[in-house]
Amino acid sequence: MYHQKPDGSSEHNRLLDAAMRLLHHPAIRVPELDEIAQEAGVEEQQARALFADSREVYEAAAECALLWLNDACIRAVVKVDPDDSMAQFGALGEAYIDWAVTNEPYFRLISGGQLVQLVGSPRLKRYHDAMRDLMFKMLERARDSGRLAADENIALMVISGRSFAYGLARMVVDGRMAEWYPEIPPMEAARQALHDYVLRTARGSMPRDPAR
């Protein structure tokens, strides 16, 4: 099982850690495997016994990142009242943003689309699918419990929710949040915006009272 971050306790983890140190943003050039091995203090022959090339190293790093992200999101969700699916949905989004800011290099790796393709790799796609399925189930429970309209388009809500959380995370890690909401710290601004989004989504989904 992977730890929260590569801890250098194995050649495999040392190579992942070195690869992330060498990866600059934006990635103008992908480091070669021999460069990663040298940075990690691992013999190139041993590195090639573990990975065919540097892109395999970054795919392994992305798998670690997705594992940590999914774990962080699930731990956040289970702390919320299971009968309040919309609150769980909000907790999921907040955990995603927190993780992205805390693990910025890994967030950029899995979201950049240059070194790794989440849906193009069966190895990575399973983590992507697990998160999407979790979002679907939350919103379906919210609909079935009357917190969302019975005819709500759940698939569209999943896309918009994911896009909104990703956008907030990107604004924070890129240092752009203060341009739009300078009054408070960026992370607090992101949390408030997410909370407002979830509330408005839930309210907007409910049928209007014809008596009003």
Give structural notes:
This protein is mainly α and 212 residues long. It has a domain of 144 residues: Tetracycline Repressor, domain 2. Helix 5 packs antiparallel against helix 10 and helix 8 runs antiparallel to helix 10. It is elongated and about 60 Å long. The termini are far apart. The mean pLDDT is 88.
In short:
InterPro entries: MT1864/Rv1816-like_C (IPR025996), Tet_transcr_reg_TetR-rel_C_sf (IPR036271). This protein has 212 residues and is an all-alpha fold. Helices cover 68% and strands 0% of the residues.
Strand content: under 5%
Query: What is the overall silhouette?
Result: elongated
Broad CATH class of the domain at 62-205: Mainly Alpha
Task: Report the radius of gyration as a whole number of Å.
Answer: 20 Å
Give the CATH topology of the domain at 62-205. Tetracycline Repressor, domain 2
Helix share bin: 55-70%
Q: How many beta-strand segments?
A: 0
* Whole-number mean pLDDT: 88
Low-confidence stretches: none
Main sheet makeup: none
Structural class assignment: mainly alpha
CATH architecture of the domain at 62-205: Orthogonal Bundle
Element-by-element helix/strand order: HHHHHHHHHH
CATH homology superfamily of the domain at 62-205: Tetracycline Repressor, domain 2
List the total number of helices: 10
N- and C-termini, Cα separation: 56 Å
Q: What's the quaternary structure here?
A: single chain
Keywords: Transcription, Transcription regulation
Protein name: WHG domain-containing protein
InterPro entries: MT1864/Rv1816-like_C, Tet_transcr_reg_TetR-rel_C_sf
Domain HTH-type transcriptional regulator MT1864/Rv1816-like C-terminal: 91-182
